[in-house]
User: What shape does this take?
Amino acid sequence: MTLDSSLQWMPIQPSMDEIRSRQCFHFTDRAPQLRCGKMVRDARLILSPTVEVEINMPPVGPFNPVESPAGGPLTLEGSVVRLEPIRREHAQLFWEAAKDALDDIFRWIPYSMKTPEDFERLIEEAFAEQERGESIVFATIERRSQRVIGSTRFMNIDRANHRVEIGSTWIAPAWQRSAVNTEAKFLMLRHAFEVWHCVRVELKTDALNQKSRNAILRLGAKEEGTLRKHVVTWTGRIRDSAYFSILDTEWPEIKTRLESLTMRRG
Assistant: This one.
């Protein structure tokens, strides 16, 4: 049996331990998007110069995070909160929700949020990001009172790698220890994994923000590490960022736990 002429790299002889641990893969150009150590769809693992093993992984679904499945701006609604598309009039509503606790809410955000003009600038920047296809930004609405109580977004959208980040989240203090954040994250994670078919959702926070780090861990995310000197904040402090992620393979278990938690706290 001769080697397939389509081989991009010559194979080496891996040990069985390497094969079992998935650390020594050699791929053909039939799957040029693959990376060493990753098993994804339609890869061909070369075990020796004369042996080929076909690995058929489930295909990744379409990923087009722009609009709702029915068309139009995306709205996510649960029993406690509604995440609705950002509008310019939200700038004033955000200011009203946050103005009495600006230092508490925005202590760890790297840009300044001190005035109504800062919220207007935030809205304009959000529209610019959405126009570029980088983000989808929401106003967080408490359903019972229909009040605007915060904001969150899908950001750093990476279509090629089926990856998205959930971040830039803030909630007015009166709702910070309620079901609001849990349900909002649940709605976004469910949409990312079950509608967009993401393989990875990222979250990050200032490494000094222990409250946020604990909240992310309670979601079930795995801490991956710290990017040192990652962001220069508006005060001049150079921030380290702690990174977390949830994978598609982890989502079913996390979904069950978040559903239960949301029902208890709702």
